[in-house]
Amino acid sequence: MRKFSSIVILTGAGISAESGIDTFRDSNGIWSKVDYREVATPEGFARNPGKVHAFYNKRRRGLRAVRPNAAHEALARLEAGFDGSFLLVTQNIDNLHEAAGSRKLLHMHGEVNAALCQCCSMRWPWTEDLTINSQCRWCKTTGQMRVDVVWFGEMPYRMDEIDAALTNCDLFVSIGTSGNVYPAAGFVEQAKLAGAHTVELNLEPSEGYSLFDEAVYGRATEVVPLFVERLLAGQDDTPADKCGTG
User: Fold this and answer.
1) Per-residue pLDDT for 101 more than 90?
2) Could you tell me if residue 84 is left (phi over 0), alpha (psi between -120 and 50 degrees) or otherwise beta?
3) Which of 158, 221, 223, 224 could form a disulfide with 70 if both were Cys (CB 3.0 to 4.6 A apart)?
4) What is the pTM of this model?
C-alpha cells in the first residue's frame, strides 16, 4: 500500500452494529418499526415533543451499556499513528468513536449525548433524559430543548470542513455505510474527483460500490483492523482489485 499524506474516513451504522447498537435503515432497523416522521423531523417534534424525547432518551440510555469494538479501536490507532492529515467523519450519533480514543472527529449528524436549545441555538453535552420541562442553561427557556441530532430535512453539520478535507485528501475510506444517504453518499465521488484513492470496507457492497478503487467486504471488526495495520505498516504492495472476504 502506497504512502498517503491526507486521509478522510467516513463511518456509518455498520461500524457500531457489532457493538450492539441498532441500525436505522436495515430491513429490521429502527425505521422499519418507527415512523421517522414522528420522531426525526422538526414537524414531529412540534406535534409531540414528549414522544420524540422518549425515543431519544431510550437511545441515550442504551449507550451506557455498549462499548467500542475492534473497528472503533483500530481507527483510533490509525489517528494516533498516522503522521499526515487525518479526519474521521461519522454519520453515527453514538459516542463509540470518542470512547475508543478518536479525537479528530466530526459528527455530521449530531450526537444523541448532546442537547440543543431551539430558542438560543446553544448546544452542549447532555447524558440524562430530556423532557418538555427541561430548561436551557443559557437562556433559561423551558420547553425548547431537543436532542442535538440532524433530523430529516435539516442540513448536516460542519459541511464546509468536510468539503475542504475531501478536496485535499489522497485517501478516502468508507466504512459500514449503505451509500444511499446524501450528502455522505456523494463523498466518494467528491474525493475521487480530487484524485484520492477510494476504499470501501463494508459488510456488503453499498449502492455506490462502483466508485471505489478498492473494496473489502466482511465484518467491520475483522476488515477494519487489518486495513489499518496495512496502512500503518506502509507496505509496498499494489491495492487489491475489488474483492470480498468473510
Assistant:
1) yes
2) beta
3) 221
4) 0.92
